[in-house]
Design brief:
Helix 3 links the parallel strand 4 and strand 5. The chain is 32% helix and 18% strand. It is α/β, with parallel strands linked by helices.
């Protein structure tokens, strides 16, 4: 499934995030799916399968794709036939910040090799959840940082939380990283986050994950997709 990521200033579509969904009831939760993959020793193979499906379905649009930290140790991502290297638009690889990377030096080396091939951008995901090692941002030098829903929820109701988010956004700007605010669900959250300087937004306010790619449903003035290319499914 796909969910739009939009520009916080004009509501225009920036990219889509590809979100894995499994039809088997016992693996319907993506966290459970990857836990089972880790247990079975096939995280790299699963990640490659996901990219084989997600990249062609994204057409010629920029797409965010999650990469499990374990996969960086298995060598799949650096294979020259991986679909990310043939995509016609930018690929944003999301590495979750809330899961500590084991064998960190090796993972960092793999990420550098992938990015050196061009057209691949790195995203630190879930900043503000769990582990929250800010030094990871300085080490990885991501182009994009995604703020976890835990930082976003209620930001319109708490001046201190609003100030915290604004400070994180400024830090990311100082480190040359754009910011995506995840989990935006209300217009008040949107307004508060736009005031913090966050560059992009993602959440149910704009569209729920869907396939085919859903249209951006808010703000009402947001550009509509070409007929036949995207779906209005929510």
């Amino acid at each position: 499934m796909f969910q739009p990521i939009v520009d916080m200033q004009d509501g225009k579509l920036f990219a889509h995030e590809a979100l894995v969904r499994c039809s088997r009831p016992d693996l319907a939760n993506p966290l459970v799916l990857f836990e089972r993959a880790v247990e079975a020793g096939c995280v790299g193979r699963l990640g490659r399968m996901i990219r084989d499906i997600a990249v062609p379905l994204s057409g010629r649009q920029p797409v965010f794709i999650n990469v499990h930290p374990q996969e960086l140790q298995e060598g799949w991502l650096v294979r020259p036939d991986d679909p990310i290297y043939a995509h016609d638009a930018e690929i944003y690889l999301e590495v979750t910040e809330s899961v500590p990377l084991s064998h960190y030096a090796l993972c960092l080396s793999v990420l550098r090799e992938v990015r050196a091939r061009g057209g691949i951008q790195l995203v630190v995901d879930d900043l503000g959840a769990g582990y929250s090692n800010l030094k990871r941002i300085a080490d990885l030098e991501p182009q994009v940082v995604k703020l976890d829903r835990g930082l976003i929820m209620g930001v319109d109701q708490s001046p201190r939380q609003h100030q915290l988010v604004a400070s994180v956004v400024r830090l990311c700007n100082d480190l040359n990283a754009m910011v995506v605010a995840e989990g935006i669900e209300t217009e008040d959250e949107f307004s508060a986050l736009r005031d913090t300087g966050a560059h992009y937004g993602q959440g149910f306010l704009f569209a729920r994950p869907a396939y085919p790619m859903p249209a951006v449903t808010w703000p009402p003035s947001a550009p509509r997709p070409k007929v036949g290319s995207l779906s209005n499914e929510k």
